[in-house]
Design a protein that fits this description.
single chain; 88 residues; alpha/beta; Hypothetical Protein Aq_1857, Chain: A; four-stranded mixed sheet
Length: 88
C-alpha cells in the first residue's frame, strides 16, 4: 500500500486546509487520461466508491483503483522547500 512521509502528510494537510476541502476530503491520485504512465492529482471532497483510502494523521489520500497496483509499494514524499504551482 502507498505510504506517506511526514513531509507528505504535512503537505496534504496544508493543501486541503488552504483549499477549503471539507472534512473527509483529501488528495486523489489517478492515472492520467492524457499521458500513459503519468498521474493526476486533485483535491476532492470525498473518495470515489472504489478508491483505496490511505490515511496518515489528518491527511487522506485517495488512490484510484486502477492505480493501486502501480503505487502499492511506493512512498509519497514532498519537498517542503518547493514552490507550489497551481493550474486553473
Amino acid at each position: 500500500m502507498l505510504t506517506l512521509t511526514d513531509n507528505a502528510r504535512t503537505a496534504v494537510q496544508d493543501l486541503t486546509t488552504q483549499a477549503g476541502v471539507p472534512e473527509g476530503g483529501g488528495l486523489r491520485i489517478a492515472e492520467s487520461a492524457d499521458q500513459a504512465g503519468s498521474f493526476e492529482l486533485a483535491l476532492v471532497p470525498a473518495p470515489q466508491p472504489d478508491d483505496t483510502v490511505v490515511e496518515n494523521g489528518e491527511a487522506k489520500v485517495f488512490v484510484e483503483s486502477a492505480t493501486v497496483p502501480t503505487l502499492s509499494n511506493l512512498t509519497l514524499d514532498t519537498d517542503p522547500n518547493a514552490q507550489v504551482r497551481r493550474s486553473s
